[in-house]
Amino acid sequence: MYAINPSTERLHLNERTGLLKLALETGADIVPIYCFGNTDTFKLTKGCKSLQPIARLFRTALLLFYGRFGLPVSFEVPLLYVIGKALRLPKIRHPSTQDIEAAQKQYLAAVQRIFNTYKGLYGWQHKSLEIV
């Protein structure tokens, strides 16, 4: 739950399909975006692992984080937002699970492509993106 690795960026998107379902129902485009540097705006304290049992019980993330001066004020780090090309999705009144999975596959591939293309520009050549 609190696996933070300096060589890996982790996105929790595999089980989040509600937005894609809504986009399919309405025929809206989905625009993939990635923000480089957002994981450096705050630091986690070392004691977070002791909160895992409680977090699992309540099915939520309990984090003790800090920023500048030990306060919940973010560190000043440059952020690079990359906005990908809009994904045109068909309008399907009642999308099936297969329709949603196909749209999700398309979206996740676009996010991965953005990360791999622009990570060097941000100085993250050593990092990889893990989508879970």
From TrEMBL:
Keywords: Acyltransferase, Endoplasmic reticulum, Lipid biosynthesis, Lipid metabolism, Membrane, Transferase, Transmembrane, Transmembrane helix
Cell compartment(s), UniProt: Endoplasmic reticulum membrane
Membrane topology: Multi-pass membrane protein
Keyword Lipid metabolism among UniProt keywords: yes
GO terms for MF: diacylglycerol O-acyltransferase activity
Chief subcellular location: endoplasmic reticulum
The keyword Lipid biosynthesis appears for this protein: yes
GO BP, sorted A to Z: triglyceride biosynthetic process
Any one annotated GO CC term: endoplasmic reticulum membrane
InterPro entries listed in its UniProt record: DAGAT
Source domain of life: Eukaryota
Family: Belongs to the diacylglycerol acyltransferase family.
Protein name: Mono-or diacylglycerol acyltransferase
Lineage: Eukaryota, Sar, Alveolata, Apicomplexa, Conoidasida
